[in-house]
Amino acid sequence: MKPLHLIPDDVNVPFLKFRKIFYIVSLVMVLASVGLFFTKGLNFGIDFRGGILVEIKTDGPANIGALRDNLGSLGLGDVSIQEFGEPDDVLIQLQRQDGDEKAQMTALAQVTDALGDSVTIRRSELVGPKVGDELKEAGIYSVVISLLLIMVYIWFRFEWQFAVASVVALLHDVL
Q: pLDDT for 48-84, tens place per residue?
């Protein structure tokens, strides 16, 4: 019985022959991602932007589409609804409303009224943007520190040029 060979033994792919094409493709993709970053920005979740978080339990399996239509018609901005855990557990996230905490409480009351008596509200939280700012700052610090530690390790283990090249390659991969 012959073993299965998916790739023949005599494969010769001339990668360096196409390097200029790959350089151009890579440059276009990096420029496109940087351009999108500056035009569209980042899509931060409720943890970073602030907003309202409501966890509910429905009487039966949750009808996510009906909930989305019901809450979307309230005009409260971005509404994210997702099922988690059991089929009757639902997590609702609303964007931060313009105004102070009173505006957030009004929006929460609108959501509670729209849900009606057929659901049990397990918890509701108001997440402020200050928490989000702290998370962003901590995230940036942790990424910078980890990149520096990677550079230090590669520098001691090999040479400093390899350390710089590895961090540049990581940044390229992220972009």
A: 677 788 888 887 787 788 778 777 777 777 777 888 8
pLDDT tens, position by position, 127-142: 776 666 777 788 889 9
What is the helix (H) or strand (E) element at residue 79, kind and residue range?
strand 79-83
Q: How many CB atoms lie within 10 A of CB 46?
A: 19
Segment 44-49 shows an average pLDDT of 67
Contact 96, 104 (CB under 8 A): yes
Q: How far apart are CA 33 and CA 4, in angstroms?
A: 41
Of the chain, the end-to-end C-alpha distance in Å amounts to: 47
* Residue 68 parent element (H or E): helix 64-72
* Contact in structure between 45 and 132 (CB atoms under 8 Å): no
pTM for the model stands at 0.54
d(CA 29, CA 35): 10
Domains of the chain: 19-42+132-174 (no CATH), 51-127 (3.30.70.3400)
